[in-house]
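Human: If only I could read backbone structure tokens as easily as an amino acid sequence. Take your time, and here it is.
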Amino acid sequence: MGKAIEHIALERGHQISGRISNANASDLLPALKDSDLAIEFTRPESAIAHLQICAIEKIPVVCGTTGWLKEWDSIKHNILENEGALVYSSNFSVGVQLFFSINKKLAEWMAKHPNYHCSIKEIHHIHKLDAPSGTAISLANDILQVHPSYKDWQLENSFSDHLLPIQSIRENEVVGTHFVKYQSEIDEIEIKHEAFTRTGFAKGAVLAAEWVLDKKGVYTMLDVLDLNAI
């Protein structure tokens, strides 16, 4: 993702002031001194520290790392307290954001038809560390907000009262595919998003960076793409 983001950023006329990895983590602060903004795609254990540092340094940050949201309230507090800016999304693809909006609207409609059981399936490459994917969790949480039949999600492929099942599959080099299905005894409805390359994620992250540069607060890609009203 870092290489893909760098390629898109340079293509759009931006300069890269630093590239931070585990090998040169101590270079983060000096790099931020020369930066207008940071884009954070690392690992959950690193992301929390990076976001806290960006908050203290008042550097706007775009974060696509998943698996750290247990610290969300703390990070959000730090960003707002320091008058910083954050755009967080489990998936920066413009297509996925439209998929999120379709998913939530479909869930509103299907809430009136409890004879349809909902399930989510996600497929990713074998190198992906977290399961379910952040995108699958976002899809599930959006359904939970508007569908009263479900109180929580669970990581398994079986129907259970008031629990929304998520099936996670790790397969070869799959970039990312997500399904949301509603199944009844007589038929089923399914929506699907399949990513062919990582370019869409990278382009969305750079678009978010351009959008948040002069702002303060905590945002999502729904704000960037003006989809909150849908």
Q: What stands out?
A: Residues 94-110 form the longest helix (17 residues). The first strand starts at residue 38 and ends at 40. The two ends are 29 Å apart (CA to CA). The chain has a mean pLDDT of 92.
